[in-house]
Write a structure and sequence with these properties.
Elements (H helix, E strand, L loop, with lengths): L1 H6 L3 H9 L7 H35 L8 H11 L9 H28 L7 H30 L9 H12 L8 H34 L3
Length: 220
């Protein structure tokens, strides 16, 4: 909720800011808006992601519970590790989510615009579903290599790779390009379903809110 409310909720407003109110938004400005809201969302949501990971880790480890509740986890980490540690690992998360956010929002935007301009569909549920499904596929194509390198790098032995870039280069040399798309179908099922549910719901809620605001402003 904290991530999506920023990266998706602010996208249209930030896009209008970059285009200075123009109805036509170039791909470059859409990418800029997507990366901006993606980075802002990570800055807001990073503590929630960190607490989730640490809270789940104690359940897998077994033994005594270090955190009694989510709120207690926030307080304990801030007190024992320091308030800044709630933002540990923010740099790679910003990079990853800015790219993924761009892929999701910009491809959805472009697919929807293309369908409407070509008069293939009208601005309704089937159009939103098709655009979201296409955005999910494009996002999986773009995000899979990033996620594969991140997972391989995080799970590697100490000093096995000097950096994430070195990890990617080693994978390419030893395993070839296909290594970056292992587990593509599960990733697509995850991102595809996420995009369909998220965008379809977002469009319907946006229209319902706009209709409600219009009815309130209408004269009696």
């Amino acid at each position: 909720m904290s991530f999506a409310s920023v990266c998706i909720g602010l996208y249209d407003s930030v896009k209008q800011f970059y285009t200075k109110g123009s109805e036509h938004a170039s791909i470059g400005r859409r990418l800029l808006a997507g990366s901006t809201t993606g980075a802002l969302a990570v800055a807001v949501a990073q503590p929630t992601d960190l607490v989730k990971v640490w809270f789940q880790a104690q359940a897998r480890a077994g033994g005594g519970r270090r955190y009694q509740s989510t709120i207690n986890a926030y307080k304990t980490i801030a007190r024992e590790e320091g308030f800044r540690d709630l933002w540990k690992g923010i740099s790679p998360n910003v990079a990853r989510n800015a790219i993924v956010n761009c892929a999701e929002l910009v491809t959805y935007d472009l697919i929807e615009d293309t369908l409407l301009k070509a008069n293939l569909m009208t601005d309704d549920l089937p159009c939103h579903f098709t655009s979201a499904f296409g955005a999910g596929f494009c996002t999986t194509v773009i995000a899979s290599p990033i996620d594969m390198v991140k997972t391989r790098y995080m799970n590697s032995a100490l000093s096995q790779y000097s950096s994430a870039g070195h990890c990617a280069l080693t994978m390419l040399q030893k395993e070839g390009p296909r290594a970056f798309y292992k587990g593509f179908m599960p990733s697509f099922l995850h991102l595809g379903s996420w995009n369909v549910v998220m965008f379809v719901t977002y469009e319907q809620l946006k229209r319902a809110l706009m209709a409600a605001c219009t009815s309130r402003e209408a004269p009696f």
